[in-house]
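Run log, item B.
One chain of 89 residues. Sequence copied directly from the ordering sheet:
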Amino acid sequence: MQQQPQEQLEALNRQLRKVQIIEAPGTLLFGLGLYGKFAAKGAAFHPLLNEPGVVNLLLGAGGAVMVWGAYRLVSILSEMQRLKKRHSL
């Protein structure tokens, strides 16, 4: 049995919210990495942010999560747009 267009939109909205929640820590990690790399200059509020290896790890992990989240967001939003266009919602 096929879902109705409105039900499909609701499911896509739920997926969108999940991706946004999963992506939020990645953004925070990336932001902390940028802080440690460019703003702290050896006087970070946490000692780990003064370590170049940790900072690079934060940038890498946060960036990877952000890229994954952006990919998923674009795919979900394009599917929502396609669904709306197909059913004139």
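Observations after the first pass:
- Residues 5-87 form one domain.
- DSSP finds two helices and no strands in the chain.
Flagged for discussion on Thursday.
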